[in-house]
Structure formats: structure tokens, C-alpha cells
Amino acid sequence: MTNDLIHATAAELAAKIHSGEVSSVEVTQAHLDRIAETDGKVHAFLHVDTEGALAQARRVDEAVKAGEQVSPLAGVPLALKDVMTTEGVPTTVGSKILEGWIPPYDATVTRKLKEAGVVILGKTNMDEFAMGSSTENSAYGPTHNPWDLDRIPGGSGGGSSAALAALQAPLAIGTDTGGSIRQPGSVTGTVGVKPTYGGVSRYGLVAFSSSLDQAGPCARTVLDAALLHEVIAGYDHMDSTSINAPVPPVVAAAREGLSGDLSGLRIGVVTQFTGEGYQQGVLRSFEAAVSQLKELGAEIADVSCPSFDYALPAYYLIAPSECSSNLARFDAMRYGLRVGDDGTRSTEEVMSLTREAGFGPEVKRRIMIGTYALSSGYYDAYYGSAQKVRTLITQDFAKAFEKFDVLISPTTPTTAFKIGERANDPMAMYKADLCTIPANLAGTPAMSVPSGLSDEDGMPVGLQIMAPALQDHRMYRVAAAYEAARGAFGGPSL
Amino acid sequence: MPSISRDEVAHLAKLARLAVTEDELDLFAGQLDVILQSVASVGDIATADIPPTSHAVPLTNVFREDVVRPSLGQQQALSGAPEAEDGRFRVPRILGEEA
User: Fold this and answer.
1) Interface mutation target, options B39, B75, B89, B91, chain A, most CBs of A under 10 Å
2) Interface ipTM
């Protein structure tokens, strides 16, 4: 029974809970037990909220018993990335500077989940301030990939994706600034979606790079991701960059896709994302996916987006620039850590000592890169040029979408690498985001859906699907059709 | 592009309010140099005629009705403060020398 419950999809669990076949408390307890059993090895969670989760489950069970109409995912457990504020529950963003901080308010995403009756199991591990591609930058120790515990689960949202792969939760929330939902999805064999920028509120999402940060759904199936997408998306007056437009019909699109027909759909293969630096097993898995999409009726051709070659350098100027400004708020005055306040030191000295003690090396590197890129004399050459590249990338997307309905590529050039392998080489680490960054710079939606396992190392590979802004449903349709054609590819044994 | 010196890193750390150690200065000087040389390639295609994009969604000011909404109370706002006194944040001295 427990085994069935942790293997089930969110859609299956919701149906069982809402029909009274099983209670949300049973489902929640099964996942809490699974976490207790496996998280010593995986370390997906920074905080498990047993009491809060069971209380929410009981509320849903009572509502079901009373015959009330409940929302589509009511009673289903979820793992929440520790970048979202949760009232009364610790939020660390993977950083020592917020160790022990208990937020006095809920992020909009958190509030929407609670209102929808979703059961929040706890907060998941992440690279500090979402800066990283391996979750090794967490101040609380790395998360391990359930497929091979010696390997990274991707990042920054490695905890959320690892929790899904380890059957600790059927749903999770991630945030994607340069690939932090999609790349972990790819290397853990799970689905990860970055919605259109502005589609999901950033209120209560601890800011890293505000023009790029976007929260999104993570799941083991495309339909589950779509169901979660509709729970968290929508206009929010608390976020001035929130889009005031209807939520794209992603659930309907996922259901339509399951019919398996993509006749007439035009798919462009981005020619920039292949060749040197790409693992052969990843490329073979991608080619197999292209063949399957053709069999489903899609018309597939190559498309060149030359500016995408410059997306990585542009990103590593824009994101650090915005982060150097955003992280100025960690000043040891209003919340979080304070170090060295012995009565003799000035505010400035206390700030510097606190930030030195509270931030890890990657955060410090990015703050300094951003400070450099924004300083007078260098602004035009670095930040200014990066913003121009951003324009070119947006134009390349626009041109490509004139000819194609969606674009595809591998999600990331390699399968999960070994823990420690790239830890001392920032540029090697950054290359994990090579294919995912353009969509962040353009604000367009993109997702990763598993394309099976690499034939050389048996590790999961992801297929990235990109769509124009506010056309999120297009990629869900393609992903669902592909997922059905691909079939099962097994799971990790823990 | 110019390489970045240890002194420049020390200056950046000061601007960014990071009391970095001597060992970190050595480490970061090398790493920042590699990163900056690598990202400098944006200059290859960023010609003068291209307008910059600061944000994917073109936005102007967002207005809303001036109505009172619930917000954090004083106690909640101070709940995470490293130190508080009389309902206020308590901070270290902000002037250079004591009078």
C-alpha cells in the first residue's frame, strides 16, 4: 500500500483522496516515512514540517468527508524549494546568513499552494541563493542524485528534483533563473518547467536576479506538472512584473498531448546546442527523441540562433549584476545573521564581517563580478554589452518562432557529473546552463522532460522544449505526447 | 580585456561589504580573472546600433488604487531582527568616531 502511494502520480493520488479511497493523512504519512527512510542518503530536505503537513492533510480529509468541492490537487504532498518564504517555517535559501530565520509571511506561491489544499512536506535543499548547478553550494551540504549517490542532482533546485526521483514527493516547486528547474529535472529523470517570465508571482521568492527569476512546477509526469502549474500561476498585485493575462491552458494541453498526435506541429532543432562539450549518450538520446517526435507527426527542421552562443557570457554578467544589488539587503540589521557587533565596531564593519561569515564562495564571487560589471568605466563593456546580447537573443527567438511552433535541444550538455568534479572550476560549472539560459534572458517558457537514460552511463537525460511567451501550453502538449510515446524508463533504486 | 589584480579584488570586496581574507583574495583574483575574460566575449557582437534590453517584459510604472491592505505588524516586522529595542531595530553605531 505504502509502496503504491509513493509511486503514484499526483493526479492518481488526488483522484483517490477525493473519492475517499485513501485519506490525505495516509498519503502524507507514506511520504513522510519515505523521507525518514531515504533522506539520510539523499539529503533533499533542509526542513521537514511533519506537523504542518499532517494538519493540512487532516483539513483536506475533513473537507472531502463533508462532501465539499476541493481543488484538483487538494491533499497531495509537495516539496517546496527553500527559496520560498513560509510563515512560521524556516527559510534559509541554502545560506548561513538566514540560518534560523522564521519568515513572518508566506510567498504568494506558498499561499496559493495552501489555499489549494496542497500538503507542504518541507523545504528542499538548494545552491546558496540559487547560485549553482549542482546543489554543492548549499551551506548545509550537498544533495545526492538518487540515481547514483556519488553524483550531483543538478542545481540550484537539486533538492526538489531529487525528492521527486527518490519518491519522497510527487510534486515539487523550483525556481529557474538560468536553468535551476530544468537542469535538475534533466539529470534526475523528472519533469521541470520554467513558465513564461511573470507567469508565476515572485512575491516571497528570495531574489537572486529579479529580471530572470521565475518559479515553476516540478513533477514526475507532464500532466502533474501542468496541474501544479495552474495552482501557482496567475496575476499578483504584489509583484510588479506579474503578467495580467489569463493563465495558459496547460492542463488541457497536457491532456490533449496524451492522445499522441502532433500532426502538422513544426519543431525547430537549435543547431547551436550540439557538438563539442556534449556527451555522446546525451546526443544519442536527443536524436532518438527527435525520431519519436517525427513518428508522432511533427515536422522537424534545424534552426540557427547564432546569438545563443553568447547567452552564457551575457547571463554571467546580468545575473551577478542584479545579485550584487539584490543581496545588499543582507546587511545584518533587520533579519538574519549579525556577526562582530561587540559594541566597538561600526555598522559598516559589522555588515562586512556578517556578509563575509554568512555568504559562501560562489555568492561572494558573483557579488564581486556584479560589482565590477556595474562599476563606472566597465559598465558599457560588460553590463551594457550583455543587455544588447539579450536583445539579440530575444530577436533570434522571435525569428525562429515565425517558422516553428516550438524549439528543442538537449536540456544540459552532460548527464549528472560526480560530486566535487567541477567544484573548483566555476566556468566548467557554469556550462551546465548552456542550453537553458536563452529562455531566461528572453523571458520565454521552457521545460525539460526526460528522454530516457544515456546508453553510456545509465543516467537520465532531458529533452528541452521551448515556446514563445505566454504559449506555455504548446510545450506541455508536445511534452505529454512525447512522454506517452517514450514510455517508462525505470527509476533509481534506493 | 585587462586582467584583474589582487588589489582590485580587495577594492571590489570593500565596495560589496565583504571582509574577505587574504587567502580568499588570492583565490578570487584568479577566478574572477578567468570569469571576466570569458564573459568579455559579449563585446564581440554588442554593436552600437543594438538597443539594450533590461527586462524581458517591457514594463512601465505599475499603478494601483491607493487602498489600505493588511500588512506586517510591528512585532512581526521585528521578529527576525538580530537585536530590537523599544519596538525598533537596534543597530551598531553609524558614525565614524564616538563623540
Assistant:
1) B39
2) 0.93
